[in-house]
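Cross-posted from the bioinformatics board.
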Amino acid sequence: MKNRAKRSILKVARVIRSKNSGPYELTLDIMFKDRRDYELFKKKKLVTASQIAALYGVDKSEVLKIIYFEPSQAIKITLKRKIPSGTPGDTDIYGAQQHAPLLNLKF
Amino acid sequence: MEKRKKLPPFKILSTTAILGYGFPLSSFKKGLSKKPDLIAADAGSTDPGPYYLGSGKSFTNRTAVKRDLRLMIKAGVEKHIPVVIGSAGGSGARPHLDWCLEIVREIAREEKLHFKLGIVQADVKKEIVLKAWKEGKISPLPFVPPLTRKVIENSENIVAQMGVEPFIKLLKAGAEVIVAGRSYDPAVFAALPISRGYDRGLALHLGKILECAAIAATPGSGSDCAFGTLQEDSFILEALSPERKFTPQSAAAHTLYEKSDPYHLPGPGGSIDLTGCKFEDLGQGRVRVTGSKFVSSEGYWLKLEGVRLAGYRSISVAGVRDPIMIERIDEILKAVEVRVRDILGKDSQGSRLYFHVYGKNGVMGELEPVKKTKSHELGIVIEVIGPTQAEADAVLALTRSVLLHYGYEGRIATAGNLAFPFSPSDVAMGKVYEFSIYHLMQVSDPAFFPVKTEKL
């Protein structure tokens, strides 16, 4: 296979965001600009639990699921919240600012 | 066999994403001109955190909620359109429901409106939860610790998210305005059409989108109305202000929001299955949705929510601009805590101390992959959670003063380590709650919630 420079997720994503899915889960969405890129990611499984675990420095078992959602050409990743929303020690009640490590995703 | 009559379109006006977030009068009027069969809004969320359920307070403003309710109830009663509100007061426990009902009664008096008010309580007594727990009828959601007797006993304001059944009961009893405690968000929209024979999957999926009103349109807004038309085999979404529209992408994107699996949306009694769902552009800002299915679960499960008191909080906010201190911030904060614990001894034992260091990892905490800050200044929120307010205040005061004058290695700014933006520097924030129950409970009767009506 020919080597090529890795591309940033920002080249192909329209939306990258994080939010609570209930107080115990954090859910991350990557929506693609172009259906072809979505299909490529889906076919080649370019987002894996190990990769997400590495980006967030968590155990793989804390990545609950990765789902490809056709109607929005989006990938949804759900993680365990280290600290449930609002429990002492929490830093982001809505979980809305936990997406930044995803911006470093390369493929 | 008698041929079934085709169902006419069922039209729903969703006013706002959360009661109290407001909506433009022009959108509301446009919605009314389309002769809706139902006006509804969801008032709740667990998003603002556990405090509101525990304290019995609403996270929305009373004046704002009254404004929204006044418009909805006045129009509904005058035009004979049922008005349905779920998760009253935000968290939907008894104090929140009472708070919302008081507003409704005030409106009725002020506007001289007379109607039959339906009320549903969502509170679940501890004895009921304990009994279900003993019988093995409680199941935790992912990442939620299993329930114990102690957790149940220490929990406050336990509520269950009700499905459509209590609403149907009240609508059949002739309620014109319904105010319910904690509800599954789509229930307020789906109950009436389901009782009239519309498809459960489509009605609930429509409700799932309408509960956030115009957030699912583009540009999205939580403070604007949305309009849904349910048919036998599909539903149609449209926005009511000229500046926004629904697109297949906006409607589908909303299905992703705040959920872990967009294809299967679980709720009371089963889940909405969207694997065969299609979003189709009808033009003029309208979208048709088909293929949403309801799949019944084995047994009828309700989601319970409960919180417990975690202590009392005190905080202080300060900034650091000294580069030598910023370089050593981790070791300094660690040493400060050791010093404070040493001075207070057992008086600090019950208190937890947190430093939220903005500019370093204040937002992501231990998830932060950037370990070394490049920031030239840091914002520090010193937080103490103690068993009483007095203990929290004492630990905070000492932590603040020790940090202010701490003589770290290499220090050359000897006048003080912190820039306080405020005097007083310390704030007592009162009770802190944490989620303790977020579990499913199996019930035999889906309409297990107490309902009543009241003539206003």
